[in-house]
Design a protein that fits this description.
Layout (H helix, E strand, L loop, with lengths): L1 H19 L7 H31 L8 E4 H19 L2 E3 L8 E4 L1 H17 L6 E8 L4 E8 L6 H4 L22 H11 L3 E7 L3 E11 L26 E6 L3 H11 L5 E6 L2 H11 L3 E4 L8 H10 L8 E5 L4 H10 L3 E4 L4 H28 L1
Length: about 375
């Protein structure tokens, strides 16, 4: 379901981003239309993610990775993500300052998802010129409570009792703010799966406080480890003939065309195309590309199987293989990275992230080539 819903969105959002940043630039009227396509497309993607999250949770197949995480780091990340929305809405944000950083035991990605949901709601349903305050406190049961206080209209008791019902928007259906009534339900299930609690208090005309409680824990021990420095070379405009080769293994014509259009902006890269996994392996062995872009759901053999075959062949084992797939559930990404993909990009493509990943892969190739040259010189 994730794959089927994301694939058409990849074409819509990918080509809209190309038009937005194309040369010559779009006219003001075209720019407004493109902006509407992008806003609606990214919002539709959020709704798809929420629905799939709820389905995954209710099926009992959601896997979490609880670990000690710094609350200061999590809140800093959330602040960076939510500040643009607050600024656009004219809402003031206040976050706590910590003398001693508290740690909680939770899944980092999921706790951020919950907090972003609470923060975005507090901003969306606030009054003009209102404020949102984040408060943290540890209670006697060795739990940490994170509260999000807003200055909105507040909720009467009968609506407060309906807060965590699926698809219940509490009468906001006719309002200007979009939503499905799923976000709070997903947040509640996630917090409970992490062994915590979630709740709300509200006063009509004053505002609301939404809070979550999670287990407190100690800071993890730091283990020293040697790490190898990888230099990432920033992309520069090129005027010389292509010096790098990218093999794209993709069977969807729209997705393939999008990659072709993206690489038209990279004259330093020559594109090779294979439309199934077997042909992709054959071309990788024959052409020895610098980087491979691999879909997962391919005719014949899957991208995961193709990756395994390439990794076992000494001629292709060192080529970075980047997954580009509409299989975007957390388990899919973890499985792909564990299988050996250099990076795992999900559809719909975000153009900037696609280019950054490509540059990182090419930088690693260049670094390895330089090191091999040094070793040959030593010998």
């Amino acid at each position: 379901m994730s794959h089927e819903l994301r694939s058409p969105l990849n074409a819509i959002l990918g080509f809209a981003q190309l038009m937005e940043s194309g040369t010559p630039p779009p006219t003001p009227a075209q720019g407004q239309s493109i902006d509407q396509i992008l806003q609606a497309g990214w919002y539709l993607l959020e709704l798809i993610n929420e629905i799939l999250d709820l389905a995954l949770i209710e099926s009992g197949k959601l896997s979490l990775s609880p670990e000690p995480i710094s609350l200061a780091e999590v809140l800093s990340d959330c602040r960076g993500m939510i500040e643009p929305l607050a600024l656009k809405s004219g809402i003031g944000l206040t976050f706590p300052r910590f003398e001693d950083t508290p740690f909680i035991k939770a899944d980092r990605t999921r706790v951020k998802q919950v907090l972003i949901n609470l923060l975005s709601n507090a901003i969306k349903y606030n009054r003009a010129g209102g404020t949102v305050e984040v408060i943290c406190a540890m209670n006697a049961t060795e739990r940490t409570r994170i509260s999000v206080r807003d200055t909105g209209n507040g909720l009467p008791p009968e609506k407060l009792a309906q807060l965590f019902q699926p698809f219940n928007r509490l009468g906001q259906e006719s309002g200007s703010e979009e939503g499905t009534g799923i976000g709070l339900v997903v947040s509640k299930r996630l917090v409970e799966l992490m062994g915590g609690d979630i709740g709300a208090e509200s006063t009509v005309g004053v505002g609301s406080v939404f809070w979550i409680e999670l287990h407190s824990t100690r800071a993890p021990r730091l283990v020293a480890a040697a790490t190898e420095l990888t230099v990432v070379v920033p992309a520069r405009p090129h005027t010389d003939p292509p010096t790098r080769t990218l093999l794209c293994v993709e069977d969807n014509p729209a997705n393939l065309l999008l990659v072709e259009k993206l690489l038209e902006r990279r004259p330093d890269i020559r594109l090779l195309v294979a439309k199934d996994g077997v042909r992709g392996i054959e071309m990788a062995r024959a052409a020895r590309p610098d980087v491979i872009l691999m879909d997962i759901n391919l005719p014949g053999i899957s991208g995961l199987i193709a990756l395994g075959i390439l990794a076992e062949d000494p001629e292709t084992a060192s080529i970075p293989v980047v997954a580009l797939s509409a299989n975007a559930m957390p388990d899919d990404i973890e499985k792909g990275l564990a299988a050996g993909f250099f990076r795992y990009l999900t559809k719909p493509i975000k153009v900037n992230k696609f280019m950054e990943t490509l540059d990182s892969a090419l930088a690693v190739v260049q670094h390895e080539a330089g090191r091999a040259g040094v070793l040959r010189g030593v010998q």
